[in-house]
TrEMBL record:
PANTHER family noted in UniProt: ADENYLATE CYCLASE, TERMINAL-DIFFERENTIATION SPECIFIC, ADENYLATE CYCLASE, TERMINAL-DIFFERENTIATION SPECIFIC-RELATED
Spans through the membrane: 7-30, 404-422, 429-448, 454-478
GO molecular function: adenylate cyclase activity
Keyword entries, A-Z: Coiled coil, Membrane, Transmembrane, Transmembrane helix
UniProt-recorded name of the protein: Guanylate cyclase domain-containing protein
Start and end residues of each Guanylate cyclase domain: 520-658
Listed Pfam families: CHASE2, Guanylate_cyc
GO biological process terms held by the UniProt record: cyclic nucleotide biosynthetic process; intracellular signal transduction
Coiled coil regions, renumbered to chain: 114-141
PROSITE patterns given in the database record: GUANYLATE_CYCLASE_2
Entry-linked CDD domains: CHD (cd07302)
Record flagged with keyword tRNA processing: no
Length: 781
């Protein structure tokens, strides 16, 4: 397979695995925690909209106004002048993140009626409770009147979950619990704002769990934009003329908790059920000549009603990032000479009212977020509600990518990383990957900072990078291993196994590699090769010689290729035309390796004989020579061409011994060094020879067969030849000639005997000194 195709496969695997990890991480909230935490931390605090102000019911206000620590238990009569002051200051919307439950003390007897004092106590207690209930009711009426007069107050309802069992099945139901009835009726809007007990990162614009009710930030924004309501309805009517009847067509008819919520839901349903409506409204808005501020408000309104209805909060910073005013300061008289009082510009602002703490110890309404402080201070519920409102106002929540685009980015990023890591070496792919990661992260951070768009980070920048490099390294390792195996297999045709293993570990050592070992060299030469090469077609000759070498190499290398075979284990070090050089090498003098060489030589003779029977028209009779001793293994050649082969006297001598076969008319000759300590073979000594180019004579033997396979004639031949050779050494030329001649007559034409007959005839008239040892000098190879 082409490398590019493999790289594309690696990239595809990285992309697909990246998608799998992405959706797993999303399901378990890992991406949200890691990605958003990193992006928010890198971005830091950002400017909150000046249109949003939080009035904090804090510890200072509790102390100064002498109220309970729980804001929901405060005297509600306080909220009436509080609202009046906000209205006088020009607040466009007032949002209470407080639940106004019904305050009512029950009447009952605490002590036995038989006791007179107890009766008086019960009477006094019940009268007190009655007065308290009347006071609470009066306080509710005062607050209700202030709410009605303001006309822009939104209250918070509760979202209660209840679990019931039916036929063994647990059923969870969710119900809205509105505030006190009179407050609900006179408020401009009522809505819940549920938050999780654990990490707060999302909110609902419309909560399906409560019969698809709008959340508090949504009704707050619709209330804040009442002045633009008529223009908004005109845009909606142009885009969708069939407006539902329950939808008020002017802002004067929308105020009132029931009608307000119904209107908000009606608008949401029109846009949800007709997705093109919002697009038409935005297009129409672009051509209208409106004030920029009005244009932005209307765009934010349109986007508020669009899905998704569960959105990520785009936090502005740690607690008190929004402009925050203590509750008690709003109650201060307008004419009081206090410099702080004049600093609060509330005109056309939306006011969120709720519990805000300065200390984590006294915090009751805290939610963990990425901006929770190290001391344990979390964002309060009212701050999160203000954050959601501000996100709607700026039309800048944290936006996730469309699933198609998200998947495409993850897959293509993985594809690019996979191709890069597999196609190029690590020295190139690693720095390029670092650059790509930096570019990706820079773009992701820029998009998040300027538009709130959340690009995935943890998977593409860590998981997929690790996957791309890991998969590439593993596949490259497998590929290199396969190539190394192929190379080693190929090298083993030319080099010894131990050398191949060394080169596989360090190829640079080839030129300097050299070692001295003990070994046996086997040299072969095929007769008639020259004449065959002249007569045969080159392709036919190549095919013939390959089959021939197949026979020789099998005998040399393959141990146990036959059940009774004791040879093999050698290395073919050189093939040249019709000759082969093989070696059996060990670290020290070893009988077993020499035995294997002898067995291999005998097997070559047998297998070549069979080969020649099959190829009778093109036979290749083979001569073999063996010699043992110290061998130098090393690289031979120059920079442009190196060969690894055995060199030294042993190699040359083995070749000379092989050449001696031509004169002796034999097939397998070996030196006495090969046979030292071995008695498994039938051999006959052929005498001492001083071979061409040598200064020291060596004793040559003919290797006949394994001694257990020897016939009586072969044994007798060796015996008679030994006797004749002794006569030759004693210079008894006539007797020696007679003895060698008798061998030829009795056992047929015998090459060594014929060689000595000719030699004795030449020496017959010569006179040698007594020190003559019968060494035969060979002047030719």
């Amino acid at each position: 397979m082409k490398p590019l195709y493999k790289a594309l496969i690696v990239g595809s695997i990285t992309g697909i695995l990246g998608l799998i990890f992405c959706y797993i991480f999303m399901a378990f909230g890992i991406s949200e925690k890691v990605d958003l935490d990193l992006l928010f931390t890198m971005r830091g605090e950002r400017q909150a909209p000046s249109d949003v102000i939080i009035v904090s019911i804090d510890n200072d206000s509790t102390r100064i106004l002498n109220q309970p620590k729980n804001p929901e238990k405060w005297q509600r009569a306080l909220h009436a002048p509080f609202i009046d002051n906000l209205v006088k200051a020009g607040a466009s919307a007032i949002v209470f993140d407080l639940y106004f439950y019904k305050k009512e003390l029950k009447y009952y007897n605490l002590i036995n009626e038989d006791n007179k004092l107890a009766k008086e106590y019960n009477k006094l207690t019940n009268e007190t409770n009655k007065l308290t209930n009347e006071a609470n009711l009066m306080a509710d009426n005062l607050l209700a009147e202030a709410i009605r007069n303001a006309g822009n107050v939104a209250l918070c309802s509760l979202l209660n979950k209840e679990e019931t069992e039916h036929n063994g099945v647990t059923i969870e139901t969710t119900e809205l619990e509105p505030p006190v009835e009179i407050l609900e009726e006179l408020s401009a809007a009522v809505a819940p704002f549920p938050l999780p007990k654990r990490r707060a990162s999302k909110y609902w614009t419309f909560d399906k769990r409560a019969v698809d009710t709008p959340s508090l930030p949504v009704v707050a924004f619709q209330l804040f934009t009442l002045n633009e309501y008529d223009e908004f309805i005109n845009l909606l009517q142009k885009a969708y003329p069939q407006l539902p009847e329950q939808l008020p067509l002017s802002k004067d008819k929308i105020v009132g908790s029931t009608s307000f919520n119904n209107a908000v839901l009606a608008i949401k349903n029109v846009i949800k059920e007709n997705p093109s409506v919002s697009t038409k409204m935005l297009n129409e808005l672009d051509v209208l000549n409106l004030l920029p501020a009005t244009n932005l408000i209307l765009k934010s309104l349109i986007h508020m009603y669009q899905p998704p209805y569960r959105r990520y909060l785009n936090y502005y910073g740690p607690p008190r990032t929004f402009k925050t005013i203590p509750y008690y300061k709003i109650l201060e008289p307008r004419d009081k000479s206090d410099n702080d009082r004049n600093e609060f510009d509330l005109n056309n602002k939306v006011i969120f009212v709720g519990a805000v703490s300065k200390s984590s110890i006294k915090q009751k309404d805290g939610f963990y977020t990425v901006f929770s402080e190290s001391g344990g201070l979390d964002l309060s519920g009212v701050e999160i509600a203000a954050t959601a409102f501000a996100n709607i106002l700026e039309n800048m929540p944290v936006r996730t990518l469309h699933k198609g685009l998200y998947s495409a980015i993850i897959f293509l990023w993985g594809l690019m990383l996979g191709v890069l890591c597999y196609r190029f070496p690590t020295t190139i792919s690693a720095p390029v990957a670092v650059v790509l990661i930096a570019l990706y992260f820079s773009n992701a951070f820029y998009q998040f900072k300027t538009a709130g768009i959340w690009y995935p980070l943890v998977v593409p920048l860590s998981v997929q990078v690790a996957l791309a490099f890991s998969i590439s390294i593993v596949l490259k390792y497998i590929h290199v291993g396969r190539e190394r195996k192929n190379i080693k297999t190929a090298f083993r045709h030319y080099l010894p196994d131990d050398l191949v293993d060394k080169l596989a570990r360090d190829i640079t050592s080839l030129k300097a590699l050299s070692q001295q070992v003990y070994g046996t060299c086997l040299s072969t030469d095929a007769e008639q090769y020259t004449s065959l090469s002249e007569a045969m077609d080159p392709d036919e000759l190549r095919e013939l010689i390959n089959k021939y070498y197949g026979v020789l190499i099998q005998s040399v290398q393959e141990e146990g290729y036959r059940e009774d075979y004791k040879g093999g284990g050698g290395n073919v070090s050189n093939l040249l035309a019709d000759s082969m050089m093989a070696t059996w090498m060990t670290d020290q003098v070893d009988i077993e390796s020499r035995k294997k060489a002898c067995y291999s030589a005998l097997d070559i003779g047998i297998q070549v004989h069979k080969f020649n029977k099959v190829h009778s028209a093109t036979p290749l009779p083979t001569r073999i020579g063996l010699h043992s001793g110290k061998i130098i293994l090393g690289s031979i050649g120059a920079e442009g061409h190196l060969e690894y082969r055995p060199v030294g006297d042993i190699v040359n001598t083995a070749s000379r011994i092989e050449g001696l076969n031509k004169y002796m008319k034999t097939r397998i000759l070996l030196s006495e060094e090969v046979l030292y300590g071995i008695d498994e073979f039938l051999t006959r000594e052929l005498g001492q020879f001083l071979l061409v180019g040598k200064s020291t004579p060596i004793v040559i033997h003919e290797l006949i067969c394994v001694i257990d396979d020897a016939g009586q004639n072969q044994i007798n031949l060796c015996t008679f030849f030994s006797e004749a050779l002794s006569l030759y050494r004693n210079q008894s030329w006539k007797l020696a000639i007679e003895k060698f001649s008798n061998i030829c007559k009795r056992y047929g034409e015998d090459g060594p005997s014929r060689f000595y007959i000719m030699l004795c005839e030449q020496y017959y008239e010569k006179h040698f000194e007594e020190s003559w040892a019968g060494v035969i000098r060979m002047d030719k190879k």
